[in-house]
Task: inverse folding
């Protein structure tokens, strides 16, 4: 029984985090500065690989350009050198990645030239060869998969199987290589490239069909994928491993209608990444985060305030609201304080009304407020617990999203909901909480279909965050933390800033082709989570 209370804390994850804990904003000014880093991308002489190399070069990295065609390698290398702030000359390596000897040569030349490797964007054999070097730099491996790894397509068995294998490789390597090396995968949808060629009339019809089935009503661009890779490689994603980041405009949820259309995702329009936008600048934007008077909500509000947004602080406790508002005031002169009980429909409407009255707009809605109380289905109190949890964890998310749609439509805004890894991994004595979080995940997918292209809708699924909520007998708490850390591939507990960084990125222009996804930020613990149930 000594673990029962602690486990109930676990599934709360982040709902009532102390706003001040380990939230060092000063270390977060420029998480996408790759000066001094070495990035090796296979197949970077053309297509998506070239786009990734160009963006890393623009962000200051030393990049390695690889491919089979020396003319294409030289062309991309010249572009990267022009984009590089210090005009760094890329390493050029002509190689066939299906040849083991040539793979070894790529790595040998990289280490000989730069003496290190920080980011590998990737194939399976090269991951194996690169481990000793990535271990030294606390590096990261990012693989390019596809949405066809989860949705079968007729006449494409080899391609679908290969991409499914990449996804599983990522999860296994996340378990094996943590904490020094993080391993993640990008799963793109259709990218607009010259490979879509042929009869112009047929191609035009094809593109129109895809766009009509994509909630964001456009085809992806190479920069959409490159931005995802860069973010996963950055400090902002330091508690993310074993994740599949889907970048497809939401088309995966309509994919059944398109399943027999040949998707080619391995090429890239080369003219899209010559300008890097300051996607973390939220000046003039209005951000409403429920439950922002404490915990992860307070952390989100602080980071948005620091990045220039007008933030709305909400909660039930006026003292806590004032405290967080004062902290946001120090980070930015723009803030609004609103006391509200999110389980009360009248107060939800008031919350939105006050936001619009003050700022005249809404750009980002973060559904965050939540509670967690354990109760087994056999408990006499179960139904009262069930009703209470859903009245806070689910209904307000749906209702405030519903009320906000007219305003978010005007600003091409975004909805981000805080769920939990408990939505996918069952926990004993936490049926109510798990059901509420699973419902949030499905709400996100349906809203992504309904609200695109003007409004993007996504979810963050956190793991365990280190907070004062883990209180009680110090020996029991310490023992529990050690258990969780031992089962987390990155060998640490999450911090509030890990979640806030994810929210900010999903709200930014860098994620403009992402809707309907679940971004898991858990250090990889979901893959070892079953063992927690034994206690």
Result:
């Amino acid at each position: 029984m000594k673990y029962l209370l602690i486990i109930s804390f676990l599934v709360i994850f982040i709902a009532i985090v102390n706003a001040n804990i380990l939230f060092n904003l000063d270390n977060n000014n420029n998480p996408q500065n790759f000066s001094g880093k070495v990035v090796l991308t296979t197949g970077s002489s053309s297509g998506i690989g070239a786009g990734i190399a160009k963006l890393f070069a623009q962000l200051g990295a030393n990049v390695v350009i690889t491919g089979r065609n020396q003319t294409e390698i030289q062309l991309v290398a010249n572009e990267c050198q022009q984009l590089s702030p210090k005009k760094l000359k890329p390493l050029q390596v002509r190689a066939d990645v299906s040849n083991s000897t040539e793979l070894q040569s790529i790595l040998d030349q990289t280490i000989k030239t730069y003496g290190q490797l920080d980011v590998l964007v990737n194939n399976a054999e090269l991951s194996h060869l690169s481990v000793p070097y990535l271990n030294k730099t606390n590096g990261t491996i990012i693989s390019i998969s596809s949405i066809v790894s989860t949705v079968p397509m007729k006449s494409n068995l080899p391609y679908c199987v290969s991409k499914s294998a990449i996804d599983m490789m990522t999860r296994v390597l996340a378990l094996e290589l943590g904490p020094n090396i993080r391993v993640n995968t990008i799963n793109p949808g259709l990218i607009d490239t010259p490979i879509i060629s042929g009869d112009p009339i047929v191609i035009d019809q094809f593109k129109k069909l895809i766009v009509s089935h994509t909630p964001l009503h456009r085809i992806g661009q190479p920069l959409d994928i490159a931005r995802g890779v860069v973010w996963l490689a950055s400090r902002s994603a330091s508690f993310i491993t074993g994740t599949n980041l889907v970048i497809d405009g939401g088309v995966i949820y309509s994919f059944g209608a398109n399943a027999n259309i040949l998707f080619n995702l391995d090429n890239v329009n080369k003219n899209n990444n010559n300008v890097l936008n300051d996607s973390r600048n939220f000046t003039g934007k209005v951000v409403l985060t429920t439950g922002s008077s404490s915990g992860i909500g307070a952390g989100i509000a602080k980071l948005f305030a620091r990045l220039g947004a007008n933030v709305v602080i909400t909660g039930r406790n006026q003292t806590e609201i004032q405290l967080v508002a004062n902290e946001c005031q120090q980070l930015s002169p723009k803030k609004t304080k609103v006391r509200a009980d999110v389980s009360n429909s009248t107060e939800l409407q008031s919350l939105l009304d006050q936001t619009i009255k003050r700022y005249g707009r809404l750009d980002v809605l973060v559904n965050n407020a939540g509670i967690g109380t354990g109760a087994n289905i056999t408990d006499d109190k179960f139904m009262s617990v069930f009703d209470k949890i859903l009245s806070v964890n689910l209904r307000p998310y749906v209702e405030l999203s519903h009320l906000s749609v007219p305003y978010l439509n005007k600003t091409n805004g975004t909805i981000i909901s805080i769920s939990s890894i408990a939505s996918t991994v069952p926990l004993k004595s936490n049926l109510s909480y798990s059901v509420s979080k699973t419902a949030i995940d499905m709400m996100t997918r349906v809203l992504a279909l309904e609200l695109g292209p003007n409004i993007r809708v996504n979810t963050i699924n956190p793991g365990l965050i280190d907070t004062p909520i883990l209180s009680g007998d110090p020996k029991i708490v310490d023992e529990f933390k050690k258990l969780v850390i031992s089962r987390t591939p990155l060998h640490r507990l999450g911090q509030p800033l890990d979640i806030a960084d994810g929210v900010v990125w999903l709200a930014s222009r860098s994620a403009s082709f992402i809707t309907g996804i679940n971004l898991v930020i858990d250090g990889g613990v979901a893959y070892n989570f079953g063992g927690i149930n034994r206690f």
Notes: The chain has 16 helices and 14 strands. The longest strand covers residues 182-188.
